[in-house]
Specification:
The structure holds two protein chains of two kinds. By secondary structure, chain A is an alpha/beta fold. Chain A has five helices and nine strands, in the order H-E-H-E-H-E-E-E-E-H-H-E-E-E. Chain A has one domain: 3-Layer(aba) Sandwich (Rossmann fold), CATH 3.40.50. In chain A, strand 5 and strand 6 form a beta hairpin. The radius of gyration of chain B is 20 Å and the shape is globular. The chains are: A alpha/beta, B alpha/beta. Chain B: InterPro entries: PhnJ. Chain B: This is Alpha-D-ribose 1-methylphosphonate 5-phosphate C-P lyase.
Chain lengths: 201, 294
């Protein structure tokens, strides 16, 4: 059991680190498939990548119920770190989570376990933060949708391998749906609910 | 930064987090109005409190900020918001459209083409395009949920029945990404085509109505119309009296009480950069007159 003093640190400069991290996430969301870097440095508990930790410190607070997958919640480190730095409630029910942190995407639960939002309030949905193997190497994935000029190609090793097939539910559900942020160390790629797979994946 | 009593960019961090989450949802659902817990700002509603909150949530120390009001960099609203962020965030400000990374605007889109990496933040008074047709929020929300926009087409049709053409000249409704009907804020409909396939990110903030919405870059934005009454831009049929531009949106300026008037570019930066490039209009000061004042 670690004491609070032994927990990994948060941002050294809360204000400006959160701002630059947010801009990376905003650019990623506005330009799906593009790789954005997270420059801010923070301590990372155990199974969390740098990008995931920075996003958590930037966007989580007492208003955002957070769901952790089995690997994230295997040890109490992540939950304790999140609680200390962000005050975000950790919830066991993924269908009420604002954010879901997934360190072991191979065992990602079916997407309908998460919140899709309602037709009236499609913003009340879960944003998945998925730690992946690589956003630099791997099969070619071609995407199109708002934010993309024509189409964009991404080379990435992502598990589950059928992630984009699963995300195809977004097309039928729109405006409901699931937004995904893929994280590989300090690199992030966003796949909002409007993004469609052209080929690959 | 000479006001250490404030947090960077005025807003507290919890407020920024809340607004930032709303912005991310708004980008993910183009044209959908995300509710947010709008704060009181040190300026009255109607002066851009929504736009200011969005700008404060995205602004960083490396940004270069431009603020325009009806196209102009030098009106009271534009100057005070520019000074506000100069003081609370210490950011560099500019009037040149091409140099800005964040442009906050009231009711115009700059004439100079926007580029990737820029963010255009609109100040929005009434975000709900259906509000004057249906006052109940519960009903308009259901209409958006069902994609039921017949009422808006009836409104445009009534324009045609009454005036012979679509008389809506500003806040002209658009459909974003073939799904949500959206109010582009009271920009003249001249600006509507600039929103389509725009390389810059467009964010909209309505402070009093507590809504944030967005158009991601390269997104389809279509002005509503009919096959036999297609959407048209409107522009006074005259060149700018100061720079001679024949393609810019013009303001009408009354010059005397005998019906005299002149038309000048509403976008002051566009007009000034054309004048400095040597373009002249019918009312430009003659060179010798300028010397006489010198």
């Amino acid at each position: 059991m670690t004491s609070v003093a032994e927990l990994p640190a948060g941002f050294a400069d809360k204000v400006l680190s959160a701002q630059s991290t947010f801009r990376s996430v905003m650019d990623a969301m506005a330009r799906p498939g593009s790789i954005q870097r997270i420059g801010s440095v923070a301590g990372t508990p155990d199974t969390m990548m740098r990008g995931t930790a920075a996003i958590a410190l930037t966007l989580f607070d007492h208003d955002t119920p957070v769901w952790l997958d089995t690997r994230m919640s295997a040890k109490t480190d992540v939950a304790r770190w999140l609680k200390f730095h962000t005050s975000a409630p950790i919830v066991a029910d993924s269908s009420i989570a604002g954010f879901a942190l997934v360190a072991d995407p191979q065992n990602l639960p079916p997407l309908d376990r998460f919140a899709f939002g309602s037709n009236e309030y499609p913003d009340r949905s879960t944003t998945l933060i998925l730690q992946v193997e690589s956003l630099a190497n791997g099969p070619t994935i071609e995407l199109r949708g708002p934010g993309i000029d024509g189409s964009v190609t991404l080379r990435a090793s992502i598990r589950p391998q059928d992630l984009f097939e699963r995300l195809a539910v977004n097309a039928g559900l729109f405006p409901r749906g699931i937004d995904v942020v893929l994280v590989d160390d300090d690199a992030i790629v966003a796949i909002p609910r409007t993004t469609r797979l052209v080929r690959g994946g | 930064m000479n006001a250490p009593a404030y947090n960077f960019a005025y807003l507290d961090e919890q407020t920024k987090r809340m607004i930032r989450r709303a912005i991310l949802k708004a980008i993910a659902i183009p044209g959908y109005q995300v509710p947010f817990a709008s704060r009181e700002m040190p300026m009255p509603y109607g002066w851009g409190t929504g736009g200011v909150q969005v700008t404060a949530a995205i602004l960083g120390p490396d940004d270069v900020l431009k603020v325009i009001d009806q196209g102009s960099d030098d009106t009271t609203n534009a100057i005070s918001i520019r000074k506000f962020f100069g003081k609370t965030a210490g950011v560099a400000t500019t009037t040149a459209t091409a140099d800005a990374t964040v442009i906050q605007t009231r009711h115009r889109i700059p004439e100079a083409p926007l580029h990737a990496g820029q963010v255009l933040v609109y100040q929005v008074p009434i975000p709900e395009p259906l509000r004057f047709l249906e006052p109940r929020e519960t009903e308009t929300r259901r209409m958006h949920a069902l994609g039921e926009y017949g009422l808006m087409h009836v409104k445009l049709y009534e324009d045609i029945a009454r005036f012979g053409h679509i008389a809506t000249s500003y806040a002209y409704p658009v459909k974003v990404n073939a799904r949500y009907v959206m109010d582009p804020s009271p920009t003249p409909k001249f600006d509507n085509p600039k929103m389509d396939d725009c390389p810059a990110l467009q964010l909209f903030g309505a402070g009093r109505e507590k809504r944030i919405y967005a158009i991601p870059p390269h997104t389809d934005v279509v002005s509503l119309d009919f096959e036999d009454h297609p959407f048209t831009r409107y522009r006074f049929d005259a060149p700018c009296a100061l720079c001679g531009a024949g393609d810019s949106y013009l303001d009408e300026i009354v010059t005397d009480d005998k019906g005299g008037r002149m038309f000048v570019c509403s976008d002051t930066d566009y007009c000034e950069s054309r004048q400095s490039a040597g373009h002249r209009g019918s009312e430009s000061a003659a060179p010798h007159k300028e010397r006489a004042h010198g």
